[in-house]
Specification:
- There is one protein chain.
- The chain is 21% helix and 29% strand.
- The protein contains 9 helices and 38 strands.
- By secondary structure, it is an alpha/beta fold.
- The protein folds into 3 domains: 2-120 and 282-300, NAD(P)-binding Rossmann-like Domain (Rossmann fold, 3-Layer(aba) Sandwich); 123-278, Dihydrodipicolinate Reductase, domain 2, CATH 3.30.360; 317-494, Hexapeptide repeat proteins (UDP N-Acetylglucosamine Acyltransferase, domain 1, 3 Solenoid), CATH 2.160.10.10.
- Strands 19-22-25-28-31-34-36-37-38 form a 9-stranded mixed β-sheet, with no helix packed on it. It has an 8-stranded mixed β-sheet with strand order 8-9-10-7-11-12-13-16, with helices on one face. A 7-stranded parallel β-sheet has the order 17-20-23-26-29-32-35, with no helix packed on it.
- Helix 1 (13-22) packs across helix 8 and helix 4 packs parallel to helix 5 (99-112).
- The longest helix is centred in the middle third of the chain and has 17 residues, at 163-179.
- It binds nicotinamide-adenine-dinucleotide and zinc ion (ZN).
- Zinc ion binds at residues 476-478, 480, 489, 491-492, 494.
Length: 494
Amino acid sequence: MINVAVIGAGNMGKHHARVYSELPGANLVAVCDSDEGRAKTVASRHNCKPYTDYNEMLQKEGIDAVSIAVPTKFHKDISLACIENGNSVLVEKPIADTVENAEMLIEAAGKKNVTLTVGHLERFNPAVQKLKQMIDSGEFGKINSIVAKRVGAFPPQIKDANVIVDMAIHDIDIFNYLIGRAPVRVNINSGKALINQRDDFADILIDYGRINAFVQANWITPVKIRNLTVTGDKGYAELNYITQELVVYRSKSMEIDNFNDVVKFGTPEKSVIEINTEEPLKLELAHFLDCVGNGKKPLVTGEDGLLALKVALNTFGIHPTADVSGKAVLGNGTKVWHHSHIREEASIGENCVIGKNVYVDFAVKIGNNVKIQNNTSIYHGTEIGDGAFIGTGVVFTNDKVPRATTPDGNLKQACDWSIGKTCVGRCASIGAGSIILPDVKIGEYAMIGAGSVVTKNVPAHALVFGNPAQVRGYVCKCGRRAEKEPYTCERCKK
Ligand SMILES: NC(=O)c1ccc[n+]([C@@H]2O[C@H](COP(=O)([O-])OP(=O)(O)OC[C@H]3O[C@@H](n4cnc5c(N)ncnc54)[C@H](O)[C@@H]3O)[C@@H](O)[C@H]2O)c1
Ligand SMILES: [Zn+2]
């Protein structure tokens, strides 16, 4: 038996209390709500103790696990108090009001070694579980897009969250779950239609790199609709979150003409997938107790809750004005700022910062932890190593014979060019306004002074500047000047 309690006995919390009172593995010990009437009503309904102060409840009762269903702005403080008290926590979605607060909860739960899960209830919707299985077993082929709609009337009790963190976040978490990775870019168009304090409608387009997801969420549509569709190259699925219906369409035959240009579909085959309907909350809480009792990892981790929140708050790396090709690859944690253009097949590693109005050409390769300042142009053929710093307005040229036309006066075409290959070594730094000519190799930890024109290779740790750039000395790892070799720096000893 696991001793459980519920904090917040409002709209959602009262259902947590009811389900716990019905679950065989749970012993509902107490219910806490700052509204005494609510606490008493719900506690007496389920034969447990009412509290108005959660700290008092945590001290007096021997509790193992807690559901927290208070308004979002209190999620962090109350969850933290429970975690510090050694209790496992299921906090309602969204995990917290800010990314920092969510990170604090994840860290605290890790330190205390208690289960932390977030009430992303739709994951436990049996139709969603079935859909996930079908996607993973390849029944729809390669997924192309996922579209969700979550609309209906305004919920008067929600006073501290907008429609994105309150509603769309459900589908955002489902997108993350079904696709199995974090998105690279989020574009939110939202606004206020019927109320003037918080956004009550939002249209959100999320780029997962080769898969697009879209959710429309609002509190202005007079009818309640919650559905999701998945389009793959082998089939299409329609899911109704409310009725837990899942309908699948598959093309029975598909012919592609010889020019790979026209696709002919046969009549599609429609099947209604059998679902064992169940109350998702019951499945969610039973799973929570299983995790607490048996040390299992929850289906929805704190990190999952954090990721959904990051998408909802659009703390994502790529600014909406940036133009990032769907055929470029960007590592986790990489940020691309306003108006930058990342071309097809470019690859950028993890935790890089690409400043404003940067141009990264076709198939350029950039390592991890690279910082590229505003207005830099990096042309095809360039490779930049881990930890390099590229100052403002640097240009990597790649054409050794920069003429617009061929000798017979025609505009040059791709075949008339020979592209140079330029490499920047690990942790090298290139000062603002420098120009790097084609085929140059810059050694690791080299330092190129601002405004240099680099025409030939630069040795590792060399300090060069001028036009043409010449070796003027050497620098250590931390970037201080060393006059002679071998040199050691007081600070970094390197
Ligand atoms: N997973 C879902 O589908 C779903 C659905 C609805 C709500 N929610 C989430 O549940 C949470 C609560 O939403 P709700 O609709 O039940 O709101 P609600 O206002 O109906 O309930 C919140 C309750 O918390 C109580 N409360 C406030 N501060 C407290 C404190 N310090 N100590 C104890 N009790 C306190 C309030 O008195 C109230 O009874 C929100 O985070 C919301 O996002 C999730
Ligand atoms: Zn040093």
